[in-house]
Amino acid sequence: MSENLNTVRWGILLSVITILFGFIIGAAMGGAESQIKDYWMTLAQPGLVNVYQNDPQKITDIINSSWKMLQRAHMHAAAIGTAALVMSVIMANLNAGERCRQIVTFILGLGGLGYSLSWFLVALRAPVIGNVHIVKESLFFLAAPSIGMLLLGTVIVIVMGIRSIFIYRAYY
Fold it and tell me: Which domain holds residue 111?
């Protein structure tokens, strides 16, 4: 068992780092909500005239949106990190080549971390830019490949699982 897990150690490590990232965000949100929002208020102030047209309500709205993006980062990191970890353990025990298992679990772990990080960066940058949609578009380079890695890795785990559990067993 430990030899199988050793094969997918990088995927496991990235998955656990992603889960930890989600836990840290959650702890920060629970313990420092007002400090986070005050920090975002500070970030937004230089744009009061040009970005927010002297409307404090627009700053409040963007801070509320940023908080939602931070919640998404927290939830995605915890959930996707856990899913990537489970799929890495499954992949470690499938009848697949060692290199295949290494690559698939690595892209699952990296995809989960990248996608969670993209939501985190949206939350941090939105108060400065003043528009969540623009910030999300600017982080497409990180989010899209991360989603692609997660989808590709998941499909490969499914295919390899079916192959190992149903097809391979039928012949041996």
Answer: 2-167
